[in-house]
Amino acid sequence: MKRARRAAPGPLLLLGLLLLGALPGLWTLLLRREPDSEPRSPAGPPPGRWGWGRSPAARGRRGGGGQKTFRALLAVPAAGQEERGGEGRFAAAGSAPPAATASPVERGVFWSRELEAQVPPGFAAEEAAAWLSAARAARVASLERGGCGRSSNRLARLSDGSRACVRYGINPEQIQGEALSYHLAGVLGMQERLPPMALALVEARGRQWESVRDELRGSHWAEGAVVSLTRWVDNLTAVVAPAPWGAEAGGGRRLQPLSAGELGGLPPSQLVELVQWSDLILFDYLTANFDRLVSNLFSLQWDPRVMRRATSNLLRAPDGGLVFMDNEAGLVHGYRLLAMWDPYNEPLLRSLCVFREGTARRVAELHRRRSAAAELRRRYRAREPLWARLGFLSERQAELLQARVDFVHRHIAHCRAQAAAL
Prior knowledge:
Blueprint (H helix, E strand, L loop, with lengths): L10 H22 L23 H6 L8 H6 L5 H12 L12 E2 L3 E2 L1 H4 L8 H13 L2 E5 L9 E5 L4 E5 L4 H17 L8 E5 L11 H7 L6 E6 L5 E4 L27 H20 L5 H7 L10 E7 L5 E3 L8 H4 L1 H13 L6 H13 L2 H12 L3 H4 L4 H27 L1
Antiparallel strand pairs: 1-2, 3-4, 4-5, 5-7, 6-7, 8-9, 9-10
Helix pairs in contact: 7-14, 9-12, 9-16, 13-16
């Protein structure tokens, strides 16, 4: 008996089997292929402390409002590959990638070391010492009016080719305050922010002034007066106070605290400037200097736009470094007027809760040893040959300096406690 012959598979069935066998290859091809219709944007630096990351709105605009197709998801590289690709592009361009992942603040209240490393160096100690030595030995070649503040001051051209502002105080305590403030900045580790300053004795028949005897007669300076010589710095520009001490401080509103939580998204240039402002505010509180930002705050009562204007006695060097100018109101004159100006100086300090760690360490040491006046006196006597002409702080002023150091130390401790509680 003959077996029945099997029917040959139909054409549709054969086609289906062929397609089924080809699916793995098609799937592999799809996985390997970049979607041509949705080209990827070049990978930028990852978001972080410097604020280079894209805003949420920008992220939403990219990729069709945030809805990714299945093909687009297949094209996304593994985690970390996009960042490494971005670094490769930076390296090819000849520049290092920005450190955009670290926080600008460490341990809640201290500026990070990476951020501090970006602060312009200011007046290096060796450079300042060399200028001071040369200025003390040089003769005054000419005295010119203008460019150095009050009409009683002069711009001096020295025989070595350099220039200096010669400040003649309305009374000796202003020159004393200038000199003591300069050396207190050295005790605190921030002297590089102040131009080099030396004292000089006005003697019309002396070697230093013999070339400008006629100018001295016209200046009405007293024979034997002590003046200050401050290095002239070219190309300085005005500085407007940043938030929270700038325009936001006007209109009767209280100063907003500068803390780690207030720094998110700020560009590096602003963060670098804030590092310097934190030293400035601490320094002006210790010296009770009212002739800088405090005077602007005082003027708000009749000029609501004053905080949008330049800050008194504060300038910016071409490299972005702040220069703390003209500190005559510090320590002596300022201490005599505490009752008038501390209602502005103290809230200004309380508005600050991020500090340079080195500054905080020096304040803590002066507090622990109760040695603020002693350290200042030691440095002043060792580095200023004419210190005895003006003398030092009175006993009461020395006590006030220590009390203000103690207050700053307690405030930093309070900020640290607040940060630890978050």
